[in-house]
């Protein structure tokens, strides 16, 4: 795949005169798994939405696979980048299979239905993500974890090599957190998908990713390996609170637990 999957150069964005992102420089290489962390209001979700052109405007540059996003049609961009938003509990009137099939829209004409090849790909993707048994169930009857895996399957149906995920494991029980994390790790390690994921769960972030980027008040304040981030002084600088680090057998990266507010 030609070109760097994501590159931002000096990107800034203000909404209603409020600065949301300030001078962001970020480069994500092919096959990387990058976690974006930081406190509430840091601009993490907005950053993903700018890369996927859900939010437009701003100054500086955003390129996807070596091409400015302003040069893509929405259909072209959807073939290169897929976005899984945070679960919000909305009831969508689709079965799981219908929803995954919607991911094929970048390849269909305005009034075209999915063809046999599209249906074959959808079945293959549903099998690969472990949601085949959910095919005929409506999304509003699924658990949060089941629905999240269906959303990821729909993103894969777009055929994109860059996956943007906003809080992919939030509100999930422990079993589904593990299932979703393992699915994303397999897509990255085995299938070569480039993953850029926002998360509030620091332990989840450092367990899965190659690299962590931290935002604070719209500014990039950290960009490095998980072991470099999980230091008490660095975390307290980012989050303005204290932390307790708990050693793990067989790992040089401790578990992170917030301490009492400083």
CATH-scheme architecture: 3-Layer(aba) Sandwich
Name the helicity range.
Answer: 25-40%
Task: State the distance separating the first and last CA atoms.
Answer: 47 Å
Number of strands: 12
Provide a compact summary of the structure.
With 262 residues, the chain is α/β, with parallel strands linked by helices.
Textual characterization of the structure:
This protein is α/β, with parallel strands linked by helices and 262 residues long. The chain has a single domain, classed as Rossmann fold (3-Layer(aba) Sandwich), CATH 3.40.50. 32% of the residues lie in helices and 28% in strands. It is built from nine helices and twelve strands. It has helices at residues 44-51, 74-80, 96-102, 116-128, 144-157, 174-189, 202-208, 226-229, 232-239, and strands spanning 6-15, 18-28, 33-37, 59-64, 67-68, 81-84, 162-166, 194-198, 211-216, 219-224, 243-248, 251-258. Strands 6-7-8-3-9-10 form a six-stranded mixed sheet, with helices on both faces. The radius of gyration is 19 Å and the shape is globular. The termini are far apart. The model has no long low-confidence stretch (mean pLDDT 92).
Write a concise keyword list for the protein shown above:
262 residues; 32% helix; 6-stranded mixed beta sheet; alpha/beta; Rossmann fold; globular
Write the topology of this structure.
Layout: E1 6-15, E2 18-28, E3 33-37, H1 44-51, E4 59-64, E5 67-68, H2 74-80, E6 81-84, H3 96-102, H4 116-128, H5 144-157, E7 162-166, H6 174-189, E8 194-198, H7 202-208, E9 211-216, E10 219-224, H8 226-229, H9 232-239, E11 243-248, E12 251-258
Parallel strand pairs: 3-8, 3-9, 6-7, 7-8
Antiparallel strand pairs: 1-2, 1-4, 4-5, 9-10, 11-12
